[in-house]
Known about the structure:
Layout: H1 4-28, H2 32-42, H3 51-69, H4 82-93, H5 100-107, H6 110-129, H7 135-142, H8 147-165, H9 171-182, H10 198-201, H11 208-229, H12 233-241, H13 246-253, H14 255-273, H15 285-295, H16 302-309, H17 316-334, H18 344-349, H19 354-373, H20 380-393, E1 402-404, H21 413-418, H22 424-445, E2 457-461, H23 467-480, E3 488-492, H24 494-497, H25 505-516, E4 519-523, H26 537-550, E5 555-561, H27 563-571, H28 574-579, E6 583-586, H29 591-604, E7 608-609, H30 611-626, H31 635-653, H32 661-665, E8 666-667, H33 669-674
Parallel strand pairs: 2-5, 2-6, 3-4, 4-5, 7-8
Antiparallel strand pairs: 1-3
Amino acid sequence: xxxxxxxxxxxxxxxxxxxxxxxxxxxxxxxxxxxxxxxxxxxxxxxxxxxxxxxxxxxxxxxxxxxxxxxxxxxxxxxxxxxxxxxxxxxxxxxxxxxxxxxxxxxxxxxxxxxxxxxxxxxxxxxxxxxxxxxxxxxxxxxxxxxxxxxxxxxxxxxxxxxxxxxxxxxxxxxxxxxxxxxxxxxxxxxxxxxxxxxxxxxxxxxxxxxxxxxxxxxxxxxxxxxxxxxxxxxxxxxxxxxxxxxxxxxxxxxxxxxxxxxxxxxxxxxxxxxxxxxxxxxxxxxxxxxxxxxxxxxxxxxxxxxxxxxxxxxxxxxxxxxxxxxxxxxxxxxxxxxxxxxxxxxxxxxxxxxxxxxxxxxxxxxxxxxxxxxxxxxxxxxxxxxxxxxxxxxxxxxxxxxxxxxxxxxxxxxxxxxxxxxxxxxxxxxxxxxxxxxxxxxxxxxxxxxxxxxxxxxxxxxxxxxxxxxxxxxxxxxxxxxxxxxxxxxxxxxxxxxxxxxxxxxxxxxxxxxxxxxxxxxxxxxxxxxxxxxxxxxxxxxxxxxxxxxxxxxxxxxxxxxxxxxxxxxxxxxxxxxxxxxxxxxxxxxxxxxxxxxxxxxxxxxxxxxxxxxxxxxxxxxxxxxxxxxxxxxxxxxxxxxxxxxxxxxxxxxxxxxxxxxxxxxxxxxxxxxxxxx
Length: 679
């Protein structure tokens, strides 16, 4: 068993290993070259959806192959494989990070140890066959990928820990360790001649696969900007109070405009550090060009992007938009930001949310990686800088799908509930539950008998009626009342609870429940757990019911889905019926409520509707409700309709070379009438 210092040392490198895997998944999920080499080297099936599982298998194999090369006895019970156990704890639990107490807790759970041992038995044979080599390094080396050096660095640190930790390392193992320190390519199972030559990979044009990779990382970047940065009240405060000149820039550009400027400068900093050209006509500049087009909300496909890449396109609209890109770039690039930091956005985010800053840096790293490899050549300096950037980021593992509901400043959770559009009956049910809990607590405080109460709920209704939003608010109410310590919400569905193989569903379900302790577990479309006779969904239900009893003071469960299906689901199991007796029905929105939701989207995104446009939207929503299907999407439909409207506005304005603020914010009758979306 590790002592605390040994655990911390091992944990740091294992955490990097796991998070490195996650970055590979994000970057390579659409790359056929990676799949082809993995297929050959690791004998996996060529299915991108299983990439996470395949890479997890390879990490296990590589670690065991190193253990065996050091001379560790091939006997799991000899306690020589604690690094392997720690790796499995992460892969099994999918938590962000394990502290020492968590490690001790996992080590005392028999089902976790059984899982680790079963993994050892699965990978023992392959690891012995590939003893002293790394499958992942071999794959990355053959692709001339910058990740090769990152993976090699992690392995060298890990092997060094294994040597220091355990006195079972043989003389031959010591010699092997010294060999891979002096020459990391000793980890490879191929000759250097087989490496793909960089000159052969050079190209002057963007392939469809490269375009899709650019699209993927930039979509992730702009999604982050839209959801985490735009209109952030916390970031606005930082901008106003920071000692730099960002406040004066914000006064001119507006807050969201300043955010875009800072992101542009961060991307340009990546170009600078990689010694790549900022010329939009160069192969490296294509990533920057795509970024600037997305900056202007231009919706791209491969053919259209190639048109923009042609600096002498005969299409006047294409030339005009490209000219706008060049203008934006030069204006933003020339702006001076008086801060002492390599990157701008992290400088400000670190003042309010370090984890959010790390998330941004991971996305920026992926963008930098695409810039580095776009010309088919990875220089030693590029590889080194990317490796250093990984270290700066700390390769923080991506958060689980859980979040505490952020109440607007100055508001209590119940006030946030009241501010929601519509949902009057839902609000009454939640207020009634809140009042009952308060009265019960007051009776207890005065020594009176307090009636029993179940906090578990069933939310029923169509999609887009606010069930997840209300669940988050309710979790915050439970925290405010002292029912829950954390008040966070963990969202999941059948796919997050049910495994594909026998014996794995209980482990998977326990894992998601562990992440929800002291908070609320929200299971969407819960009726899907009720499968056929041989379906593993029943195992998930049984595990959930047991944990609800075992952790009744630390876990509240909310099940959600269509009304009829949820009633059948709850009635199918006496355990469910006895624990879930509080049903809250979420009705469809009225046409007026849907219009108010549309207006809210307009205002939040800094648009303005003309009067005739607003009247058209009202009439359209009236007509939609008259012909709606049983599974009508409600607010989800409105959101999709709004996005189609602003997309049409963007296309309408694309050829306008003189864009004022008024034009950029105005939604016309043409825009709302051309916006189309199925109900």
